[in-house]
Design brief:
mainly beta; 60 residues; five-stranded antiparallel beta sheet; 12% helix
Length: 60
């Protein structure tokens, strides 16, 4: 399992329509809220879906 916490920068498998695939984790719990580093759009995913779509953790 990959380690991440609040404020971590992660790379997702699919890129966002704005062109980047780097996201910052802004809320953790049963659901994880991530914010696009480029356009600041916020997306909420449940933890299982987030773990499936997570490619890499850049910065803890």
């Amino acid at each position: 399992m990959k380690e991440y916490k609040l404020g971590s920068i992660v790379i997702m498998k699919k890129s966002h329509p704005c062109g980047t695939n780097e996201w910052e984790i802004v809320k953790t719990g049963a659901d994880i809220k991530i914010q696009c580093c480029n356009c600041k759009r916020i997306v909420m995913l449940n933890r299982i879906e987030f773990n499936k779509k997570l490619k890499k953790v850049l910065k803890y």
